[in-house]
């Protein structure tokens, strides 16, 4: 479990204009990568920016489009599907940890094509099969379904994909 980070000393110290400091912190953070409003609120709190300054400033950043939780969530989903092959369930958990509200999570995840999700599962299984040569079919099935489960794929889809891929793989095709 990750320990709570101490407040950073480079934040608002009392004699500087807190809004200017907060604005610089936000712009610096957003220049690195897109972030959710919740992540930015936490960053400002760690830098000792008062809530009465942070709230209105974040509202203004939302108004001008610099902070957009829905766009952030869409980008997060696309990237995590591409790089990690995560399914909707795992993506939902990650987005909620990032502070994205339930309605936005549902809206963004509704746009994920179930066919693409099945294709991602197939790709993951094919990659993993390369390292499973010599295992019996039952062990391979258990490991592959477990891997898909950890990535958020529902059991029915996981078993169907694994069964299809093992059936089409030359090594396991004759093991029935």
From TrEMBL:
<feature type="domain" description="RecX second three-helical">
    <location>
        <begin position="68"/>
        <end position="109"/>
    </location>
</feature>
<dbReference type="InterPro" id="IPR003783">
    <property type="entry name" value="Regulatory_RecX"/>
</dbReference>
<dbReference type="InterPro" id="IPR036388">
    <property type="entry name" value="WH-like_DNA-bd_sf"/>
</dbReference>
<dbReference type="GO" id="GO:0005737">
    <property type="term" value="C:cytoplasm"/>
</dbReference>
<keyword id="KW-0963">Cytoplasm</keyword>
<dbReference type="Pfam" id="PF02631">
    <property type="entry name" value="RecX_HTH2"/>
</dbReference>
<protein>
    <recommendedName>
        <fullName>Regulatory protein RecX</fullName>
    </recommendedName>
</protein>
<dbReference type="GO" id="GO:0006282">
    <property type="term" value="P:regulation of DNA repair"/>
</dbReference>
<dbReference type="InterPro" id="IPR053925">
    <property type="entry name" value="RecX_HTH_3rd"/>
</dbReference>
<comment type="function">
    <text>Modulates RecA activity.</text>
</comment>
<feature type="domain" description="RecX first three-helical">
    <location>
        <begin position="22"/>
        <end position="60"/>
    </location>
</feature>
<dbReference type="InterPro" id="IPR053924">
    <property type="entry name" value="RecX_HTH_2nd"/>
</dbReference>
<dbReference type="Pfam" id="PF21981">
    <property type="entry name" value="RecX_HTH3"/>
</dbReference>
<dbReference type="Pfam" id="PF21982">
    <property type="entry name" value="RecX_HTH1"/>
</dbReference>
<feature type="domain" description="RecX third three-helical">
    <location>
        <begin position="116"/>
        <end position="162"/>
    </location>
</feature>
<comment type="similarity">
    <text>Belongs to the RecX family.</text>
</comment>
<dbReference type="InterPro" id="IPR053926">
    <property type="entry name" value="RecX_HTH_1st"/>
</dbReference>
């Amino acid at each position: 479990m990750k320990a709570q980070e101490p407040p950073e000393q480079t934040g608002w110290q009392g004699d500087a204009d807190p809004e200017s400091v907060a604005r610089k912190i936000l712009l610096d953070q957003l220049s690195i990568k897109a972030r959710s409003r919740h992540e930015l609120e936490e960053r400002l709190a760690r830098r000792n920016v008062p809530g009465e300054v942070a709230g209105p400033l974040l509202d203004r950043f939302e108004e001008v489009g610099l902070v957009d939780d829905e766009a952030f969530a869409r980008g997060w989903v696309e990237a995590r599907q591409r790089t990690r092959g995560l399914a909707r369930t795992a993506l939902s958990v990650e987005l909620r940890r990032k502070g994205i509200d339930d309605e936005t999570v549902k809206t963004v995840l509704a746009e994920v094509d179930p066919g693409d999700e099945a294709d991602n599962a197939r790709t993951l299984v094919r990659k993993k099969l390369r390292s499973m040569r010599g295992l019996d079919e039952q062990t391979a099935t258990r490991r592959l379904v477990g891997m898909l489960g950890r990535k958020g794929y529902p059991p029915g889809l996981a078993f169907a994909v694994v069964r299809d891929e093992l059936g089409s793989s030359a090594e396991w095709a004759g093991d029935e």
